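Reviewers of the previous submission asked for a worked example of the structure-prediction workflow described in the proposal, so we include one complete record here. The input consisted solely of the amino acid sequence. No template or homolog information was supplied to the procedure at any stage.
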Amino acid sequence: MSATSAKHLHRIIPRAPFSGAMAALPDLAAAGLYGVVVFLLTLGLLVVFVETVPPRRLLALLLGSGLAAVVLAGLGEVGVALLALGIGAALVANHTFEWLTTRP
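From that input alone, the workflow returned the following structure tokens.
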């Protein structure tokens, strides 16, 4: 590939997914803390405002959260993937909380 074609390609694709660009949340410790905060906020909203999450919707939301985390981690955004996992964990915790408090 000549130098002129490389410059032309750089103008067409200015930033490739693995071009060495910095991640949105590069510090994994801070991203983990943000994930805990997102978990607690989501769990609080679910407990206060949502009576029950139907099992089919819960499964769909869990699969969506897991898929989003896998895609984001594959793109190098591991910190943001932890936020998606925090939402999924809050859904599971809410369902478990409901199951523990409503069974006879």
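The longest helix spans residues 78-102. We consider this example representative of the routine output the project will generate in years two and three.
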